[in-house]
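ingest -> validate -> predict -> emit
validate: passed (alphabet ok, no gaps, 191 aa)
predict: started
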Amino acid sequence: MKEIANSCTVVAALIVTIMFAAAITVPGGNRQESGLPMFLNVNVFVLFIISDALSLLFASISLLTFLGFTSSSYKEEDFLQSLPKKMLIGISTLFISIATMMMTFCTSLYIILKGKSSVIIPIICLAIVPVALFAWMQLRFLLGRKAKYGAITDELSSCDAYCSFPNLVSLLNHDLQVEYGSLPSKQKKID
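emit:
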C-alpha cells in the first residue's frame, strides 16, 4: 500500500501544479488595460474557474492525505483503522480531482473553440476515458482489498486479548502464501 500512496502522491502533486498554472493562465488571456480575463462574461468561463478550483482543492486534500499515509507510524491499530481510511479518502479525492481536471480541460476547449462542435464533442468523449479507467482500476483495487483483508479485520476484531501484531503478520503471511504459493524461507538452521 505504501507504493500506491507514493505513486498517488506524485500524481496529486502534478495535478496541483497543473491546476494552479491553469488558474493563472486562463484561456484567452487577460485584457491589457484591466488585467481581467477576456472571457470573464462568458457563462462557461465560470464553470472553468469552478472546476479548476475544485480540482486544485481535491488534489491538495489527496496530496496531504497520502503524505500523512506515508509518514504514519505503522502501528497495529494503524493497519486496522487509520491507514485504510486514509487510503480510501486519498484515492476518492484523487478521483474527484482527476474528474474535475478533465472538466476544466473540456470547458477550456469549449471556450477557445466555440462553434466548432465537430472538434469539441469527440475530444470531450475521449476525455471521459481516463476518468473511467482510473475509476474502474481503483474501484477494483478497493473492493479487492476489502474482500481480502475484510475477513482478517473481522477475525482480529472478534479476538480476545491474545490477538496481537504477530498474529496479524501471520494472517497476512498465510494470505500471501495462498495467493502466491509458498514464500521463500529466510534461512535454514544448521544443526
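Residues 117-157 form the longest helix (41 residues).
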